[in-house]
Amino acid sequence: MSFLAIDVGNTRLKWTLYERPAPGAQALARGVEFLEQIDRLADTGWAGLPEPQSMLGCIVAGQAIRHRVHEQMEIWSVEPHWVVASSAEAGLINGYDYPARLGADRWVAMIGARHHVLAREGRARPILLVMVGTAVTVEAIDAEGRFLGGLILPGHGIMLRALESGTAGLHVPTGEVCEFPTNTSDGLTSGGTYAIAGACERMAQHLRARCGEEPACIMTGGAGWKMLPSMARPYELVESLIFDGLLVIAQARGLGAANGAAARLLHF
Question: Lower Cβ count inside 10 Å, N or C end of the chain?
């Protein structure tokens, strides 16, 4: 039973067609499009695909983008479903004040991270999850699977653009990360990088103090590889966490079952 997983971020849409909706399923095809170009998916990346029997997606873009994705999916009869954060799902408890207001990408990635650590270590432990993209989020999860809370920071690009627009005569060419910057470009690049790294380290300390155990530190997101060398502690880079989380959720909801699945899905 083929399964289409879609991750729509702030700048790109990524998709993977799996053989079935379950963790560890084989990927049959995958692709990525910038949001400006998603209106061609039906004629390009999706044109030759076998029709998926089920679909589940994660989207942080607005309603207009979701509508455009639905239009491209009209080449198939599959009904689109999108994850919305809830009070609990797939072994994760949502500690947000208003659970549904938690970003779907954060929720799905945390579910993927918890499943990843359980599968790798055979036991539960606290998790520090850092997602590095247009924005940066730093999530704390305890060993019982409760999301304790998370930080939200501007991504490196947003930081530099803010400085450029708010500071007279300051232009932002690409610099290098170094311990003691001696030019403006390196100072800006190093400052943004270490600001993110420092926030991550502070949350790691909070989580260790709260749980009495060193957390498993995981990083994901398109710019994660750039941050790894500057982190104060070792992180595992797992680029597929949102897709991993979608597979876990799909299985937990019984998306591949012949009956009963529809009642457990959120329709939009």
Answer: C
Place of tokens 């991504």: 155
Token pair for residue 40? 């061609």
Angle between helices 104-121 and 241-252 (to 10 degrees): 90
Question: Which residues, other chains included, contact 228 with Cβ-Cβ below 8 Å and sequence gap of 6+?
Answer: 219, 235, 237
Residues 6 or more apart whose CB falls under 8 angstroms from that of 65 comprise 8, 35, 38, 59
List strands edge to edge, sheet with 27-34. 27-34, 12-18, 3-8, 54-59
pLDDT tens-digit map of 56-107:
999 998 899 999 999 999 999 999 999 999 999 999 999 999 999 999 999 9
Q: Global pTM?
A: 0.90
Residue 97 tokens read as 């004040």
- Helix (H) / strand (E) element for 65: namely helix 63-72
Q: 83 or 164, which is more confident?
A: 83
| Helix or strand run (H / E) with residue 195 | helix 184-211
Active-site residues, by number, are 105
Strands (E), the chain: 3-8, 12-18, 27-34, 54-59, 88-89, 92-94, 127-132, 135-141, 146-154, 216-220, 236-237
Q: For 227, how many CA atoms within 13 A lie in the half-sphere containing its CB?
A: 33
